[in-house]
Write a structure and sequence with these properties.
This protein is α+β, with helices and mostly antiparallel strands. The chain contains eight helices and 22 strands. The strands form four sheets. Strands 9, 10, 11, 12, 13, 14, 18, 19 and 20 form a nine-stranded mixed beta sheet that branches. Strands 3-1-2-4-8-7-6-5 form an eight-stranded mixed beta sheet.
């Protein structure tokens, strides 16, 4: 190891595996089986040697560092095509958006914290590299039926996760929580989620019986939360991607009610653009293509408040042109 090699680029990372991460072919090299296991639980497997590697990850674990994992809040800093992700004094990543390569060093304790990798490290990593690999990241939850997706877009505390849970209870399949990754390969627009659990705030115990008489499973940003797998709870088929059919922009109101109105594409674009990260010039053309495809879908504005299951029933009823109800289950109405 060279003196002053902050990210330890000269060390050996003999373990290697390949994955599909939000639709992108990815290679991960490391010296720690725990990191590979965390990736296996977050991404889809990619058997064999792929023809093209779109994202190359190389993570070295300092097994001599015995400091405990404190699950710190990450911070991100960028300079042109380089993005640095700081985690703690012993753990950090550096992404080169031109070469689509990420190198990192991590403490031994952090390497073994698979929940932190699934819920924090890998989602932040995909946010950083999304534009450079042709992905647009939306601040949105996603549910789907028969591979036809509904994107629930909104700011923090707009109810994305809660409505995704309620819609899954009523027959949709859960795809993603809070962050959805959209890409365009050929004419096909796809939305992807990472294999991470859905997060619900403590108030969910009063709405969903599975959480009654249970204590929240974690604390995030000082708030007690539940982590859960909606597809497992409601017996839905797990899915990591879908074909979006509709964008629903959420606005929670003080008073109870349900008001659904069409949204012009220009207004929808400005709502999406607020959360887009700055991209290098080489990524902007692809980002615009994906955005244009998304904005070609029907866009609706939902102003609401009330019990999530009731709101979910109203959504299904109001959007019957896109999703038809068959008993208690849903079937996507196929376009001709």
């Amino acid at each position: 190891m060279r003196s002053g090699d902050f990210l330890h680029g000269d060390v050996e990372t003999p373990l290697q595996d390949h994955y599909i991460a939000a639709g992108v072919s990815c290679r991960l090299s490391t010296n720690c089986e725990h990191v590979l296991n965390a990736a296996r639980s977050s991404f889809l497997p990619l058997p064999g040697q792929p023809d093209e590697i779109e994202l190359d990850l190389r993570f070295w674990i300092d097994k001599t560092d015995k400091a405990p994992s404190l699950r710190p809040k990450l911070y991100v800093r960028g300079l042109d095509h380089l993005v640095f992700v700081g985690i703690d004094p012993a753990s950090s990543m550096l992404a080169n958006l031109h070469t689509k390569r990420v190198i990192g060093r991590f403490s031994a304790a952090l390497a073994q914290d698979s929940t932190y990798w699934r819920t924090v490290i890998f989602p932040v990593l995909m946010s950083v590299v999304a534009g450079s690999v042709g992905i647009v990241e939306l601040h949105a939850a996603c549910v789907a039926i028969n591979n036809c997706g509904l994107l629930l877009i909104g700011s923090g505390r707009s109810g994305k996760s809660t409505l995704a849970m309620a819609l899954t209870e009523l027959g949709f399949g859960f795809v993603s929580d809070d962050r959805s990754f959209c890409s365009l390969k050929g004419p096909a627009l796809s939305a992807y989620g990472l294999a991470r659990p859905l997060k619900l705030r403590e108030a969910a115990a009063s709405w969903f019986k599975d959480f009654r008489n249970r204590e929240p499973s974690a604390v995030q940003n000082g708030e007690r939360v539940f982590y859960c797998e909606p597809n497992r709870i409601f017996g839905r088929q797990a899915s990591s991607y879908c074909r979006p059919r509709l964008l629903l922009f959420l606005e929670r109101q003080q008073q109870s009610g349900f008001f659904l109105t069409p949204m012009e594409s220009g207004h929808a674009k400005s709502r999406i653009a607020v959360d887009l990260l700055p991209e290098i010039p080489a990524a902007l053309n692809q980002q615009h293509r994906v955005l244009d495809a998304l904005l070609g879908l029907p866009c609706w504005r939902l102003q609401y408040n009330g019990r999530p299951q009731v709101i979910a029933e109203h959504i299904i009823g109001a959007l019957s042109d896109f999703y038809e109800v068959n008993g208690s289950m849903l079937q996507c109405e196929r376009a001709n």
